[in-house]
Amino acid sequence: MTDVEKILLVDDEPGIRESVQAYLSCHDNWEVEVASNAEEAWEKIKESTPDLIISDIMMPGVNGLQFLTQLRSDSRYRHLPVVFLTAKGMTSDRIEGYMAGCDAYLPKPFDPEELEAIVANLLAKKRDLEASQGNSLQIEELLRDVKDIKEKLTANPPKKESEVKIELTPREKSVLDLVAKGMMNKEIAKALNTSVRNVEKYVSRLFSKTGTTSRTELVRFALKEGLTD
C-alpha cells in the first residue's frame, strides 16, 4: 500500500481552496490540507511537514514570494516542492517566481488536469530523491561496517580455519565482491554486463547460502569467513 502524500494549499480565495482541494483529494494517495494565508500555513507546516505546497502569490500580509523565501531559507524545508498557482501570469512574474525558487508556475485560470500532472510529477521526483538518499546512507553504513570488520580481523586474525564451508560459483563470488565494495544492484549489473534482475537473483542466493537477510549482514559474514577480501 502506497503511503499517503500530504499537500498543503495556501490561497486567500475560498472558492479556489475548495475547488482545488476537492479535485486533488480525489487522488487515492493524496491528502489535501488548506490555509488561507502564509501565517496559517507556517503553523500547519510546523505541526506536520507536507510533501508539497501549492501557493498563491497575491495574498494579504505575507505574499507568496515572501512565503517561499522563508521556506527556502529554512534547511528543513529548503527542498520542499512548491507550486505557484496565481493570477500573476506575465513572463516577468513567472521569472520572478522561478528566481525565488518555485518548482512550477501555473497561471490562473488553469486546467485542473495540468495542476494534477504537475503535482504528480513533483511528488514522483521527491520520492526518487529520497530513495536515492536512502541508498547513499545504506552504502555509507555498509562501507563503515566493512572497514570496522577488516580492522578487527587484522588486529585479531582467526586462530584456526573456519568450519563454515560455503561453495560459491564464480559469478556469485564476483557479485559478493562488488557488494562488499558498497555497490548497489544497478551498479553491479553495469560492472558485470548483466541485468539488474540477474544481480537480484545472485544476491538472493548469497543470502540463502550464508543465512543472512541484509547486505550488511552478508558482507560481515563474508569478511569473517574469508569469502571476500
Structural class: alpha/beta
Average pLDDT works out at: 85
Quick one: CATH superfamily of the largest domain? Answer: Response regulator
CATH topology of the largest domain: Rossmann fold
Biggest pleated-sheet summary: 5 strands, parallel
- Helix content, binned percent: 55-70%
Radius of gyration, in Å, reads 25 Å
Distance between the termini: 40 Å
Write the layout of secondary structure elements.
Elements (H helix, E strand, L loop, with lengths): L4 E6 L3 H11 L5 E6 L2 H10 L4 E4 L8 H9 L9 E5 L4 H10 L3 E4 L4 H44 L14 H11 L4 H7 L4 H15 L4 H10 L5
Parallel strand pairs: 1-2, 1-3, 3-4, 4-5
Protein model, in words:
It is a single chain. Helices cover 55% and strands 11% of the residues. It has 229 residues and is an alpha/beta fold. The protein folds into 2 domains: 5-129, Response regulator (Rossmann fold); 158-224, Orthogonal Bundle (Arc Repressor Mutant, subunit A), CATH 1.10.10.10. A 5-stranded parallel β-sheet has the order 2-1-3-4-5, with helices on both faces. The longest helix is centred in the middle third of the chain and has 44 residues, at 112-155. It is elongated, with a radius of gyration of 25 Å. The model has no long low-confidence stretch (mean pLDDT 85).
